[in-house]
DNA sequence: GAATCACATAAGCCTATGCTTATGTATTCT
DNA sequence: AGAATACATAAGCATAGGCTTATGTGATTC
């Protein structure tokens, strides 16, 4: 799981939508498609990209595969953001406090 | 400046390198190229993408153009990350405290 | 004011990427 | 066992994205 894969995964708006949907609660690939106008293979491919980036993880349940947000990916983004804390605007200045714990 | 432009800008490793270099201190486009094996037009194009994404801002100084990190872009990422605070791993749990201030 | 410098833009090429249709692979149901 | 369901993978296509070479533009220097 690399920084590069994460940002490339999030560069696609459809994938960010999928991720956002999963953040509201884990679900299987079919449920994810509901109301999304996306083909089954396209969804499968997007989930694969998200999974390889560490943003999402899967768990087989019978013939369904349940997907959920993987905190590991979010941690990497937080770390990336942390590198630039010197430039954070004042509104998130408080973040500085916790950054000590975030350093690799 | 949109969320989409930000993530797409950061999806390219060269652009993340440029951004990281700028985070160490503002400088002009030529200085940015030093030790980077990148053509002048390529650098100019990357800077344009970063600027349109709100990650970088420019200031003309004579015939040089000085670039520096734009905190606005970072704020957007922080906001995006904030949406998923429920999934942040324990190590950045402290972030929750400040999130009240980050909400739009 | 002509040459030079710093940078931006244009046009074209090549690869990456997201989609489609078709097919493969588990798992469940009858 | 056979059909159906849920999903993954393969192959092909069309567009997007990053690079290159060439040229344009604004500022400085001689």
UniProtKB/TrEMBL annotation, chains A, B:
Keywords per UniProt: Arsenical resistance, DNA-binding, Transcription, Transcription regulation
Any one GO BP annotation for this protein: response to arsenic-containing substance
CDD domains for this protein: HTH_ARSR
Top-rank lineage group of the source organism: Bacteria
SMART domains according to UniProt: HTH_ARSR
Record has Transcription as a keyword: yes
Domain (HTH arsR-type): residue spans on this chain: 1-89
Molecular functions per Gene Ontology: DNA binding; DNA-binding transcription factor activity
Membrane-spanning parts: none
PANTHER family named among the record's database cross-references: ARSENICAL RESISTANCE OPERON REPRESSOR, TRANSCRIPTIONAL REGULATOR, ARSR FAMILY
Annotated protein name in UniProt: Winged helix-turn-helix transcriptional regulator
